[in-house]
Specification:
The protein is of the alpha/beta class. The protein contains 21 helices and twelve strands. Among the domains are: 104 residues, Conserved hypothetical protein from pyrococcus furiosus pfu- 392566-001, ParB domain (Alpha-Beta Complex); 112 residues, no CATH class; 82 residues, no CATH class. The strands form three sheets. Strands 1-5-3-4-2 form a five-stranded mixed β-sheet. A five-stranded mixed β-sheet has the order 9-8-11-12-10. It has a two-stranded antiparallel ribbon with strand order 6-7. Helix 3 runs antiparallel to helix 4. It is flat.
Amino acid sequence: MKKTQDYFEKIKLAEIEPNSFNVREQFEEKSIQELAKSMEIDGLINPLTIRVVGKNKFEIICGERRYRAALLLGWETIDAYIKELTVEDAKRLCLIENIQRENISVMEEAKALKRLYELTGDIDELIARVNKSESYVRSHLRLNNLIPKIVNRLEKEEISFGVASVLCAYSADIQQDIHSRFLDKDAYNNWLSLSKDEIKKRVESFYTTQLDQYKFDLKECRECVSNTANFTLFSDRCGKCMNKTCLDEKNATYLLAKAIEIKQADPLVVLCTSFVRATNKTVIERLKLQEFEIQDNAQCQLYPQEPKKPAFSEGVTEEEKEEVIEDYQKKMQKHTNLMDDLKKKEGRGELTKFAVIGEKDIDFQYQLHTKKNETEELQKQLTTLAEKDKRNQELKIINTVKDTKAVIFEQHEIPSTKAISVDENKYFYYFLLEALASKHFQYFDIPNSTYYLSDKQKKEILDRGLSEEQKAMIQRDYLARHFNSAFGNGITSEFFIAFAKEHFPEEVTKIEKKYTEVYHKRQKKLKEQSSMIEKELKKRKKLPKKDKKAA
C-alpha cells in the first residue's frame, strides 16, 4: 500500500544516499568510529530523517554521521523517519539542522547560512528561521567572501573568527596580499599573534585610502559596500576604500579621460611624467597605447599659486581686517601680473605648457625657453606621428610573422607531399640566391661593384624572372658554397669529388692519381711491416712452451 504521509520504517542502507547540499564536507574518521561503538552498544537513539527520491531510493536530510556509522557496523537496515518534501524544503531543513548542530565549524555555518539565504531570499526570514541575532548572521555571511587560503587558516584555527571577520571585508586581491605577506608563520613579521583590533589597524594603514584624496566623481563610492563610511564600526565621514582594484581602475579611467581632454583642447600641451613626484603608470601605458607622446621626467616649474582669501574669526577689529585685506589684494595683484606675463610668453612661443600626470591628478606646469614657432612645433608633432605610423607598420609585420611561425611550426604540419607551387619555387630561389657568387652578378643585371645581394635586389631578380641558364648558375653556386666545407672522409667529400669530376674530369683524375700513388707507396711499406710481424707470430706458435717463455 502506498504511504502518502510522513512515517517511520526500517530502510535498507543500500537504498539510502547522502544529499548533495550538506555543507559539512569533512567527517572525522575517529568521530564516526566512536559513534559506531556507541550505536553498537546502545542502538540507534535518533532515527535518520530521509525523503523519497525514487522507487526504493531515499536521500538523507538529517543524520549522515549515523548513516556512516551504520555502514561501518555492517548494518543492512536502519530506522528512518520518511518525510514527503520538495527539493527546496529538503535543502532548507538540512541547512537549518546543520546550523543548529553543536559541533558545526565556523565556515560550515557560514556556508549553510549563505545557502539558506539564497533559498529564502530575505534576511529577516533567515534570522527568524535560525534564531540568531542579526549581527551574528551578517558577520557569518560575510565570511563567504574570504579567499580559500584564508578559509584554510581559519579552519586550522591559525586565525580567529574575529580576525577573519576583519579580513573578509576586503577585496580578494588585498586578502591575497595579506595572506602571502603577513599570514606566513615562517615570516618574522607575521600577524598571526596579533589581536583582531591590532590587525584591523594595520590593514587600514596598509590597504585603505581616504576617498576624499581622489578627484573623480565619488557618487558611486558613497553607497559602495567597500566604503568604510558605510560600516558602523568606522566613523570616517567620507570613508576609505577597501577595494583597491576598483579604486585604481576608477582613478585611472578619470585621469586618462582628463589627459585626452587636455590634449584635444590644446595640441601644444606636452603630456609628461613628473621628475620628483610619483606618476600613474597605468594611465601612462594606456596613453601610449593610444599613440600619445609622453615626455619622461620633465623638469618643469609650478605655476604661481593663487593667494587664499582671508577668513576672519570673532574678535578681529575692523582695522585689523582692513590691513589683512589690503595685504591680500597686493598679493592677488602680484599673482595676476605673473600669470598675465606667463600667458604672454606662451602666446609668443617662449613657454611650453606641460600636463604633469601624477598618481591622483594632473597638474599644469611650464618651461621657459627661446621663442618657438607654433607652426613648426605642430609640424614637428606631425613628423613624430608619421614616424610612429611607420614603426607601427613594422610592428604589424613583425608580430604577424611571429604569430604565423607559432601557428605553422608549432600547431600545424606543413604539407610535405603536395606539389611545389610556382610561388614556392620562387621562395626557394630567393634563399638559393644567398650563395650566388659575386662574379656572376653581371648575369643578373647587378653592378660588379656590389659586394653582396640585398633582400630587395634578390626580390627584383625574381620579379624579372629566371632563365634556365640563370637557374643552373644559382643552383651550382649554391652547391659550390656548401661543397666548400667538404673535409675528410665523409659523404659530403664523396659527393664533392663526384661533382668536381662531372665538370673538371681531367684535373680531378690527375689529382686522384697523384694521391693514389702516394697511398700505394705507403700501403706497400705497411704491408712489409705487417708481413714481418706475422712471420714472427707463426714462429712463436711452433716453439715449445719453455722456449716461448725464454723468448
